[in-house]
# Entry
Amino acid sequence: MKQENINIIKQAENEAEIFLKCALALSKASTSEDENEKLLALDNNLKLWVEIETSLKDAKNLLSCDIKENLMKLSKFVERVILSKGINMSKTDYDCLVNINMQISEGLLEAVKNTLAREEAFSLLKCAIDISTARESNDTKELVSALENNLQLWVYIKTLAGSAETKLPEETKSNLIKLADYVSAKTIELGQDIDNVNNKVLDSMIMTNLQISEGLMTRHSA
# Structure
């Protein structure tokens, strides 16, 4: 995955966490008798949305005009509610602010998942094409390079699937780990006699990549 995309994903995750923290603080403040707690939660949320509004006005902001417009409207709404009502706002007002933050946070996390899916799908597809191209051109050096790149990708996928932080069904994790082990074993097997490759094994590895890539893109489209 490109460093630029990794940075974008980390930024989105950090922003989602900030929205969640503000939502939690607002939720607690809504039932609290402590005015200082209410003031702190409202002040932090106001600062967050003022910062968002400022970033939306930045010429470097690459969001679409529709998204910018909607976020700007939300920002103005949040600012108006907090500044006009302050700690005297009703539980309904608090709940409204909490819901706005939660929805933005969920949207950011969904964007992260979609970005990861696109990146992995593209990488799997590229590796499959590189392996196929190297075989067709009968270029042993390129085939070795393509197989190594594919192995590195699957090691990454196995690491990701094995992580406790990965929110995938256990069956999916298990299947990805098994596929990664299969690719690793077959890559070693092919490397032992690279000048006389087993085309059935290559076909199987290429098809594995294509199927997983298609599955990721189908899930992303859905």
